[in-house]
Specification:
Layout (H helix, E strand, L loop, with lengths): L1 H25 L3 H16 L3 H6 L2 H9 L4 H25 L3 H17 L1
Helix pairs in contact: 1-2, 1-5, 2-5, 4-5, 4-6, 5-6
Length: 115
């Protein structure tokens, strides 16, 4: 029961932050959306964006597997994948740095598939 509450709380947090992110992305408030994403990485997954950015998808998966909770692992993979995809989408609107963008999209896909 406690585990289900924890997972539901993570999902609720993700839904709330995604609504804010998508609203800010649609209205062109990219900096606010990026700040919301960075805060969500910390609050929902316990990992900060710099760590996510520096690690490969396999390394992120290894870090998440240390929790030994399969349900939380799957949800965190999906949360990280979605937040990383949104951050990369916003970066694509502001940047021409294609190689890093493609790498982040690939990392996001790997995390979706693992989750």
């Amino acid at each position: 029961m406690i585990r289900q509450d924890y997972i539901m709380r993570m999902i609720e947090q993700l839904v709330k932050v995604l609504a804010k992110i998508l609203f800010n992305k649609e209205t062109g408030n990219y900096n606010t959306a990026i700040n919301d994403i960075d805060a969500a990485f910390n609050s929902i997954t316990g990992l900060n964006y710099n760590m996510i950015n520096d690690l490969s998808a396999n390394d992120i998966i290894s870090v998440l597997r240390m929790s030994k909770d399969d349900a939380a692992f799957s949800i965190k993979c999906i949360v990280i994948a979605k937040l990383l995809k949104e951050k990369t989408d916003i970066s694509a609107l502001n940047s021409n740095e294609c190689s890093r963008l493609v790498y982040n999209y690939q990392k996001s896909i790997s995390l979706y598939l693992e989750g």
